[in-house]
Amino acid sequence: MKKFRGIYTALVTPFDRTGKINVAALQTLIESNLAKGADGFYVAGSTGESYLLSVNEREYLLEAVMEAVGTRADVIVNIGMFATEHSMELARHAQKQQVSAISSVPPFYFPFTMDEYVRYYNDLADAVDIPVVLYNIPAMSAVKFSMEDISRFLSNDKITGVKHTSYDMFQLQQIVNAYPQKSIFIGHDEIYLSALAVGVEAGIGSTYNIMAEKFVRMNQLFKENRMDQALLVQNEVNEVVSALCRVGVFKGIKEILKMQGIDCGVCRKPFLPLTDEQREYLRVVAEKNDIL
After folding, report:
1. Which of 56, 104, 156, 186 is the most buried (most CB within 10 A)?
2. DSSP state of 32
3. Which stretches of 79-234 are assigned E, i.e. beta strand?
4. How many Cα atoms occupy the beta-carbon half-sphere of 272 within 13 Å?
5. Would you say residue 141 has pLDDT above 90?
């Protein structure tokens, strides 16, 4: 079983002025991240506005990513849908594209039982011959997994790991300690260094789109035990994250990408565009933290 390590950019989905997926901008974004040291990509997650895309668009997006990446990096794709059969269809498509792994947000809105969630992920694992990554994101899915629940998922050898987008560092350390052979990703960029301290070796992050090099740098500093310098980099990251949270994370990332010369358009409605004041605020923070 492959163990994933390193920096995995949770790609934004670029749109052109007509609202269609902008493949040229996507290719430029991928090349930029590879040049900055990204080890792979996470496609059609929250950052990628997955639930604002049609099924056909999600498939088209993945195909475009795979064509751009080739064999140069790992690609993990979120295939989560409400219905198991729909997720399985996206999973089969992902396997045909030869992705490194599939991932899924737990089905939400309906009050499913934990047995039903376990069955959902096991069905995904049975549907394809590629690894499955559990996507733990309680703030957005409203589904909270206990350590016992996570153990039920990870008992399946084909469920290769967890994307832990949660501030529960106690649980994160427990998972890493209990499952050293599994791939555990930290999904909150603002606690990346803290995650390294409890043994995490991989991250999937939104802000990697605009500053992957800072996380690559943190990895190196951590390995060299230069914690003071690593913390300075984390502080820079967190100042950018705070600014993004203030204006809207996904909207803000796309705006900074535009400032960097990669026009990925705007987020789909019902997201509203940024104001001029918000744009200027982002520019000041981005310049201060050396990402422009």
Report:
1. 186
2. H
3. 101-104, 132-136, 159-164, 183-186, 202-205
4. 5
5. no
